[in-house]
Amino acid sequence: MADATKLSLNELKDAAKAIRRLIIQITTEAGSGHPSSSLSAVEVVTALYFGGYLRHNKANPRDPKRDRFILSKGHAVPVLYAALCQAGYYSFEQIMTLRKLGSPFEGHPNMKRLDTMEASTGSLGQGLSLGVGHALACRLDGLDAHTYVMMGDGEMGEGQVWEAIATAEKYKLSNLTAIVDQNGYQQTGATKDVLDLKPFASKFDAFGWHTQVIEGNSMEAVLEGLAKARAVTDRPTAIVSQTKKGFGILPILEPTGDLNYHGKPLSKELAEKALAHLA
Amino acid sequence: MTIGAAAGLKLGKACRDAFGTALKDLGDEFPNLVTVDGDVGNSTRTEVFAKAFPSRGFNVGIAESNMVGVAGGLAAAGKIPVVSSFAVFLLANAYDQIRMSVAYPGMNVKLVGSHAGISIGEDGASQMGIEDVALACSMPGIVVVVPADATSTRLATRAMLEHVGPVYLRCGRIEVPDIYTADSEFKIGKANTVRDGKDVTIIANGLMVGISLDAAAALAAQGVNARVIDMHTIKPIDEAAIIKAATETGRIVVAEEHLMAGGLGSVVAGVVARTKPVPMEFVNLGDRYAESGDPHGLLQKYGLTAEAVVAAVEKVRSR
Ligand SMILES: Cc1ncc(C[n+]2csc(CCOP(=O)(O)OP(=O)(O)O)c2C)c(N)n1
Ligand SMILES: [Mg+2]
Fold first, then answer.
1. pTM recorded for the entire structure
2. What would the pLDDT profile of B75-85 be if each residue is shown by its tens digit?
3. CATH domain B192-317 topology
4. Whether the CB of A182 sits within 6 Å of ligand 1
5. Which sequence positions of B are flagged as catalytic?
6. What's the gap in Å between the CA of A38 and the closest CA on chain B?
């Protein structure tokens, strides 16, 4: 049976904290990876897995009746491994093998090696098209499964994303929700300096989507946004999730002078400070 | 074991670092040189140029197909755009744009792919360019260059800018041993014999040149005298060097950090079959994606080692 886990607000906040700790532990152990990109997405991923949204089935992760979460910004996969560990799919020891030779917990999601991964991503810009495919198939099969796709704000520069946005509207895919993790940074700097696509909301709106802008690091706001998205029955929903890259440990990152902190793990020292901060 | 150590070579800079520095150093000499990046200039190292010549460095964001189209336009207007990303995002994501905006019209665009091969390590297969050479070679008119060390990358960067027409330059992420010196010769389309020998020829490029030199050192200890050719240009291929090797050594092994399909091995095999058929063996990734892991562990696991080259030499000599 595909069932959703539904924790209380306080429990959700605790789970988010636990997930943040895991993200830091596994990336520091790996010695590479993208902790800051993972941290901005924690509230959304926690709310999806533990706030009653993703119906999943541990006995059969590919259960056709499941809801889907596609992490299009695949470099943030530590958030997903951490959430799945928190959900009891994997042990701490297992996810601590992140990025090591032989480990299925690769640097980017590999659906061939982990049946909990909905897509093999890592080349940005492709997840929403896959989500459209899932949503079309679920509708054809008469399943009420919902598909969520998370993208980065930098990732939105890829043309394919906008092709998928148009397609989803054409088929009025109310069983599809796109979440833009708008953390304000991409690899080489602030998104406003590299390629400023703001405002996202009016762009989605112009494409005919139902659109909401939420405070994406507030659990309350995320829960409300996801509830509203589920209530829409005539078109796809876009959630512009305004977050901070590295959220949860910003006081630790601030002194480094790098608030993007893209694609690098915390040193052992910084990790210890971050874990203490999250205790 | 460090690559090149068995051959007595010292570890030098990564090719991508040599490329970035060379671009900056050539900025004044080539006033039409501009860079076009897709949010990874700090990985490909074009940021070194872009910081020195800020008005001539363009970052279009994470949008590779657009990036290549923009480069096509810049070239049509007389600029020499160097457009770069991870090898796989450049060649695979923007393939049709390269085809239509660069190769087909013969635009003077320089395509540079960093993070080639499995030796990028922990990021895993989605970021590893293992098919980029095949893709680049599949487009008529594109010169394809895969340098082996920092110095030849520097020389290749100049040669690429001097050449009129599309070029693909492939760079690796990790440090590789120094093979050449500043006064070494580098000519597009002309292979370099980096070690002479008469019993067998190992034709390699990129990081496999250093590894092949290690293999040659091991073979020498067994009394086998291997010639090692750095076939840095895959297209146009140096047919004369291949025919000479086939004639003089009678056996050829080809080593590369790429899939078998469409890489150096298949190109050399085509020449050998047509001109001077001799037994051949191949050291490459075969037909599979790799995975996350440390670079050296991956090279070991996927058979890109001096031992694998030695085994291929033994096999080709037993045939
Ligand atoms: C097609 C493609 N181009 C480039 C990259 C390299 N890359 C990895 S992460 C990243 C920045 C992503 O920024 P954003 O989407 O905003 O995600 P964030 O890390 O901020 O969450 C880039 C350019 C990639 N993975 N795929
Ligand atoms: Mg971002």
1. 0.96
2. 999 999 999 99
3. Rossmann fold (3.40.50)
4. no
5. 64
6. 15
